[in-house]
Amino acid sequence: MSNITTLHSPTGPAPMLQQLPSIVLDHLARVLASSESECKQNHALLHLALAAPVFYAPCIRVAIRSTMAFFADASVPRRDPNQADVVKLTPSSIGKLIYDREIDQWYLVLPLRSSERALVQRAQGDAKVDMSFGASNMDYLNHFDEMNPSFRTVPASRRWSLLPVPFRMIAHFHMNFAQAGGRDGSCYGYDLLAIPRLHTIPSFCQRLVLSGNVPLHTLDLPRSLDRLDFAFDAVLPDPTVVPDAFDHLPRTLRALTMGTSALGKSNELALAALLNHVPTTLRFLDMSFSSGTLLAPIVAALARLIVRAPGLSGLSISGCDQFSEWDPATFASLPRTGMQYLDLVLQRGGSGRPENAAALARLVAGFPTTVESFSWMMQRSWHYGRRADATSLHSIVARFPLATRQLSVSLPSWDAVIGASLPLIPPLWSLSLESEPNIDRSADPVGALAAIAPRIPATLADLALNSWPIGDGTPALAALAQHLPPHIRSLSLMGCHLTCADLEQFVWPSTLRRLDLKGNGLTTGPKRLPHRLKELDLSANGSLSDTETWIAELPSALEVLSLGETCVSDRVGMALCESVEQQRMPKLRQVDVCDTDMSLDVIEALFTVIGVVLDN
Fold it and tell me: How far apart are CA 449 and CA 349, in angstroms?
């Protein structure tokens, strides 16, 4: 054996998790915090924090710095007047930052524990359906939150369940200036004038969300601010009234989100003024508007900002229209390569006017050459009574940038030319394509998908094909079954008119973990599914058989099953109960039986053996 091999050979057992260096533990905590939704991420982080002393500091630190604090959160601690150390909290509040206004203190909610530090268990019967409504009364379905144990308060130890958090340590903060509580200046039960803290921003805040009538010129924005978000109801100061409203933006601002439905001439002028004052350090800009039409000042300010911010790495615009009023060179100054994402949502598909379609083609000509993630959503235009014409989209799709990781395209009309020109290259990892029911004679969605399927990169792990009429043995279906990526992990064929015979053409890869067959014409569950499949969605298959035979063929590793909006009833429900009880599907933890014929007795039985039963 060479000296190099000897030096690198293990001489003892691998280090245990708690023996890893602190820098590795910090990185692990950050990965957990960025991998799932905020609720799930903090549950995992906090349970890991309590697993061993060495995990506590890095996990708690990341949990605090990655959680949004909102003073109007409903999860304010409820004190037990008879026991000083007891508070009533809901399991759903775990991982949240909550505010106790009685003592002006923020807390991070840890996994709920008793005074003996034992995890608080749910009371027996919490997971059962309230049968007092009666078998024929479905009103209880509107009160799922009350039945769900996650939303019921349980007594817990204040000392071991609530971690005091200094206000200055909060990194993500939401300030709401809307007077939702009435005309007296209150907001969600809080008197904004009586609590000065509610106008104060944490000293080291990195992300700030503003909603309501935002007095931006009165806020002391910290230099640490990295991301600024204006919520859907945000109304900015009128620049004609407050000329210096936007003069104090931090020079280090890297991300700006503007999403508002409160549009009007004054607010749109304010948004344009805001864009004019954004520093050149900006890297990510997300703009979302509900009106569909942007005033010329906003469009002009956007074009100038793109020129002024050479490091712009992400751009998202939702709700845009009237492209004939746009500067044709708006996107020409974007980096040719290296952008993380470019997303556009065309709310009305260019309004159907020929001049807008031509203007859109000129705008697309300025797109980057490659981006990491590209998303294009064009809804069908009913405006002016015009139909979507597939041929008018040929020159647009041909100029799409090459997406190196994620590509998402939704068009009102597809044909074989579009399918052949859609840019598909390795190492593309995620592909989502959506069609629409179309009356355009030039449309040929089957031909489009038949041209796309042989070109799907083998690197693809996530494929979503929604609303494609490819069932009943079409050539597109055969091409897709033949060219399914070998390492695919998630596949969605929602609303594709598929039958059980169509599914027989597929040989499911062993890597498949999620399969979505919602809204098809299936009469029974798919057969020969990979044994490691974790999620299966069969909802909205109206003819799904109410027999237990296909339940027995489901994979043993299945964790989530959706059967909502089907005709399944008690036979399927009891078969699921037996499969879990007899360990044929021991990992099943969530079942959706919304809008089925299942009785309350069987739903209650499912509650007792499965962690979550969705039923509304």
Answer: 21
Tokens read off for 109: 């909610």
Q: Are strands 284-289 and 314-320 parallel, antiparallel or unpaired?
A: parallel
User: 500 and 588: one domain?
Assistant: yes
Would you tell me how many other CB atoms lie within 10 Å of the CB of residue 561? 22
**Residue 573 structural domain:** 489-616
**Final residue before a domain boundary, out of 165, 188, 221:** 165
CA distance 397 to 448: 13
Q: pLDDT per residue over 287-303, tens digit each?
A: 987 655 567 788 889 99
Q: Is residue 375 part of a domain?
A: no
Among candidate residues 346, 352, 354, the one with its CA nearest the CA of residue 383: 352
* SS3 per residue for 268-293: HHHHHHHHHHCCCCCCEEEEEECCCC
Question: What phi, psi does 430 have (nearest 5°)?
Answer: -135, 135
Q: Indicate the number of domains in the chain.
A: 3
The answer to whether the pTM exceeds 0.90 is: no
Peptide bond into 427 cis (omega under 30): yes
Measured from the Cβ of residue 431, the count of other Cβ atoms closer than 10 Å reads 22
Question: Do 615 and 563 sit in the same domain of this protein?
Answer: yes
Query: What string of DSSP letters covers 423-435?
Result: ---TT--EEEEE-
Computed from CA positions of residues 356, 358, 359, 360, in that sequence, does the dihedral angle turn out positive or negative?
positive
Measured distance CA(577)–CA(588) in Å, rounded: 10
Write the Ramachandran bin of 384: left for phi over 0, alpha for psi from -120 to 50, otherwise beta.
left
- Give the whole-angstrom CA distance, residue 478 versus residue 491: 16
> pLDDT tens digits for 340-369?
999 998 865 445 566 777 888 899 999 999
Order of all β-strands in the sheet with 154-157: 78-80, 83-89, 154-157
Q: Are the CB atoms for 86 and 158 separated by under 8 Å?
A: yes
27, 95: one domain: no
Other beta carbons within 10 Å of 510: 11
Cα–Cα distances in angstroms (integers) from residue 219 to residues 229, 250, 256, 419, in the given order:
14, 12, 17, 51
